[in-house]
Design a protein that fits this description.
about 0% helix; elongated
Length: about 45
Amino acid sequence: EAVNGGTLETWNTGPYPAGPYWLRLVVVDQTGNFPQPCSVRVVVAK
């Protein structure tokens, strides 16, 4: 589903232990082309 200027997803971190995680976003256009994935390091704190 296309998203323009909104929230792509939410992540319920409840079941995950505290610590660092890497999230990866892959974008694909309507013709099937995609650039390099974007990786972001996040830290879950409890």
